[in-house]
Structure prediction request, 254 residues.
Amino acid sequence: MTNSTIALIQRHGSTRKYKSDPVAPGLIDQIVLASQRASTSSNLQVVSVVMVTDPGARAQLSEICGKQEHVARAPVVLVWCADLARLERVCRLRGYAQVTNYVENFLICVLDVGIAAQNGALAAESLGLGICYLGSIRNNTQAVIDLLQLPRLVMPVVGMTVGYPAASPAVRPRLATSAILSRETYAPATHAELHTYDRAMIETGIYQGRQVPVPGKTGEMEHYGWLEHSARRASQPHRTDLREVLKRQGYALE
Ligand SMILES: Cc1cc2nc3c(=O)[nH]c(=O)nc-3n(C[C@H](O)[C@H](O)[C@H](O)COP(=O)(O)O)c2cc1C
Prediction:
């Protein structure tokens, strides 16, 4: 069973090649309006979005994102921010002191950001636009804060390039649903499910036939696949400055 919404969701692929055509401001308004319609914890609406179109600023964001070319090329970069600054004013207006220093305060914001951004992503894709999320803005979060002049309690969480795709992006396979869905109590993915997915990802050609040693078997080689890619990614520390940046922005994570 399917419908046009599910078909749109199933067609998703991240776009990293954009035409130079601009995106009409009205479309960005639609995207942000869609993001606002998402569920939001206690209706607090703790999300703000900074739209970046200035080529110089996009070039700086591209540098921060590890020189990702599509960040400079896409006509629009949206930076999705956790924003407790607005509630700070609300509290002041009503004579309260806001609490912002617990993990829960930031978790509420980050969840709202993710949910809102994904509504925006689907709206963009429904309008024929392509998107790509940019966790890499957190390569240098402080530089993003400075560039966008984000005040205390406004924390950039994720970026998103938006523009018209130069070509239809590939639709990457995902793990089998049975690997992530348990019934009543938790059941881990099976070895077979992980290996089947590894092969499916290798078959997409994304890893370009790279070979890696088989763990524990000297001299034997096998295809670099999703297992190796993910294990490498997950076994390295990343963006270890974030606790400090968060603290400076007013999120102490106690
Ligand atoms: C939170 C988040 C951060 C991401 N950051 C980046 C990024 O910095 N650069 C990039 O090219 N893709 C980024 N992506 C895109 C993922 O790499 C992509 O969604 C994933 O490989 C699956 O591919 P697909 O979206 O084409 O299905 C990010 C995705 C998410 C959800």
